[in-house]
Amino acid sequence: MYTFTPEELIQYMYQETSTEKTAAIKTALENDWKLREDYDNLAATQKQLEDVKLSPREDTLKKILDYAEKSLSLLHPH
Known about the structure:
By secondary structure, this protein is mostly helical. The protein has helices at residues 6-13, 19-31, 33-51, 58-75. α1 (6-13) packs across α3 (33-51). The N and C termini lie far apart (74 Å).
């Protein structure tokens, strides 16, 4: 039996595997509880990553806005 790598399982998860490999992984997931457990762990991690909300720090936003304002004043002096 072929052993699938975590990378192959991730490709399968994102539907990036060939038709043949997709069928092989699907069959393996139905018959190999350890592989299924690994896949379920990857899927849970994927879900957690999708739920992460990222945003820049306030001082980063201020620096960007200050830079934009300075750039505009150089382009359009009073």
